[in-house]
Amino acid sequence: MEAHWRPEGYTVPNADVYPWQWLWDSCFHALIWAELDEPGRAATELRSALADQAPDGFVPHVRYRGDPSFLEDFWGRPATSSITQPPMYGHAVAELRRRGVDVPADVVAAAEAGLRFLLESRARQDGLVTVVHPWETGCDDSPRWDDWCAPSGWDLHRWYDVKGELLASVERSECGSPLANPAFAVAPAGFNALVAFNADELGLHAEAAALATALDRRWEPAGRTWVDGPHPSGRVRTVDGLLPALVSGGDRRADAFASLDDPRGFGGRFGPPAVHRGEPTFDPGSYWRGPCWPQLIYLLWRAGAPVGEGLVAGAEASGLAEYWEPDTGAGLGAVPQSWAGLALLAEGYPVGPGCH
Ligand code: GLC
Asked: Could you count the other beta carbons within 10 Å of the beta carbon of residue 290?
């Protein structure tokens, strides 16, 4: 964390692969700094993550101010990206406060405005909120998006082109905030769960409860998962499809967690893989299509799942990797990656605190 800290007030995910600031990464970094007894850096990182918020509340997901012009060409703006990421700032504010960290009022207000942007400007008739691009979920190459790679099914190179095409069709407000995308009108269960969880953490209880009720209709008992909609790839059993457990109590949560113990399901000594092992698309070495991701394991742990030991074992075995191979724990992607430090919060607590 020290080596990845930047004087501008944030931690890079990895100095070579991800040398700028990412929104949900920074929210997780704030938790890690708090765990490391660095309340100042925790609050500073949270503030910087929200610093380029638009007047309507939209928070961009990458801040690269002053860096290469190819990013400016790509995003069409000088300092930040033009889409968002899961609003983990609600949880970060609440968790820092629970730990006695002084979170300045303007940071709390910015977090609330960010949540309200999603709750209001992204609202759909079915009571859920939409994303405008797969990148907004943080789960970039998840098999849940495979239907958009049609007609021939998922292919890495084709998917790269599709992601670019999907960016071009985003509809924006006058100040450039992303509002909708007719070519990707998806309300993913995982993203909605994180909006509800973060809203609840910030005290927006009624809004969180309404989202949780809408998510109830997305429960799919046969697959023991929450689904993204009727389209086939939206039903693939992915670990983010279990995140509504953060806001849904009772039998469903128990059902959703049942496969976390199943070695042919989401079980494994290094934590749950991102894709259920029984899915034909499961690929243990492929970005977002099988490996374990520490931030998702942390979130399930928060929801009360017994995955703390897996998170710690995976972070250790992988050398604090961005993500790791589910059977061997071998590090994949960028190594070391700052968010692997979330394992510190789970150390000694095999079962997460739960939310109800
Ligand atoms: C990758 C991940 C995304 C993350 C970013 C920086 O793009 O898919 O979720 O925020 O890396 O770590």
From this structure: 23
